[in-house]
Amino acid sequence: MLYVLVITISIILEFTTSINPFMDSELHAIDWVGTSIDSVGDNVLLMKTIYNEEYKCILPDDPTVKNEDAKQSYNGPTPEELLSDLFTQSSCSYRIESYWNYELCHGKHLRQYHESKELSQKKPKIQEFYLGFGEQKTKDGTKTSKTEEKPIIKETKIKSRKIDGITLPYFEFNMTDGTLCDLINEPRQVRLQYICQPDGRGEIYELKETSSCEYEVIVLTSLLCSHPEFKPKNPPVNKITCHAMEGSPAKPKELTKWNKEKSEFNAKVEFIKHVSTKDLDEEEEEEPEPNIPDKPTVNQRVDTTLGETTDKQVLREFLSGDYCLQGGSGWWMHEFCFGRYARQFHDDKDGRTVIFLGRWNEEKHLKWLKLNPSKAPKAVGSRRSLTLLYTEGDVCDITGRKRHVEVRLKCIQNVNQPHAVSIYLIEPKTCEYILGVESPILCSVIDKADKNGLIKDFVP
């Protein structure tokens, strides 16, 4: 947190052209260190507040000049040489998610897999895809098996991307010839982007599918940090050290007063947050959430808000299947049409790709309820949600079976947003989905369903 203090400045000494006091694109923090020191030089200036409090401040050197000098004078290892230890090590990096796991053997391959074991099985059953392999050759130039020998890393132009608002250079390494993708009838491929992180040991920071069966992975490593080209491009916060001159307090009085008021305000905010969180936790204990994994593996929750005057109209159209809900924020979007279907889709220049996750079939839903009585609605007056099974989705290329999805309609009380609708989609098992729709406007519907969760002849 940077603090701004309005003061009147009297410049006594001149400073070099390497310091530009009007450069507002650089971040500076003032460190009030107390007693004065006998210091003179090009980067020293005197400041005086409106209350005649005097301070001697030492300005930092221009970081841009220092960074450029470091780049020009650098004659150390290349990025390829810095990463060679990581690419030749025998151990791999792993990312564990709620269903899929990922194994990254640097320079060799990236594997996506899931292990499942039933009581009748001695060994776990493994489902796996290779998202890509590294290019590898022998000393005589012939291509070898994709999991042996040291990879040939090609030198590329240094690129940058923003991560959490910070522009970071990265070294890109591509893996190709992965498992064949049925959607596009081409092998999977992945772009690995290695970035400098002082504590990084080759772990996967982020993995996402940027297009059908094409992936992008951010990898953290400390090996690149010694190379000046891979330092964060955003300038760091530069410190200005200010010493109080004789007769002046360690910090300006106005700043001390402002800091005290700020601390008291923050303490009140934390108290309010604590009380609110406690109240919410008690409410959740009384009304537990359905059993949904903590980390959705397909798409995150998406919220939308309907106007109050259209609630009843939208609800009628929703229950008749004429109004469909859409969600998703990545490559794949999802759509739910009540009483009709749930599907995923993606639009690009070549048109729309659609995968049906399930279609409504009342007879199959009733058979499923008989086999899973715990999915049936609770008694009228005590229920908060309904679960409906949509079957006969598109065939899954992994399991060879048709997809299906459990649709969970939930009544939630939200005084601040009484017309909000939330939709999410997760994949707890391969090609078996849970689609949730939560909204206060569903509260008038839940208790009107019959013992099988079916909503018939209901007029909002």
Automatic annotation (TrEMBL):
Classification via Pfam families: PRKCSH (PF07915)
InterPro entries per the UniProt record, alphabetical: Man6P_isomerase_rcpt-bd_dom_sf, MRH_dom, OS-9-like, OS9-like_dom
SUPFAM superfamilies: Mannose 6-phosphate receptor domain
Main location: endoplasmic reticulum
Signal sequence, start to end: 1-18
Region annotated Disordered, chain positions: 277-300
Keyword Metal-binding in annotation: no
Protein name listed in UniProt: Endoplasmic reticulum lectin 1
Known function: Probable lectin that binds selectively to improperly folded lumenal proteins. May function in endoplasmic reticulum quality control and endoplasmic reticulum-associated degradation (ERAD) of both non-glycosylated proteins and glycoproteins.
Keywords: Disulfide bond, Endoplasmic reticulum, Signal
Location within or outside the cell: Endoplasmic reticulum
Biased amino acid composition, Acidic residues: 280-289
Domain MRH: 90-227, 322-445
Top-level taxon in the UniProt lineage: Eukaryota
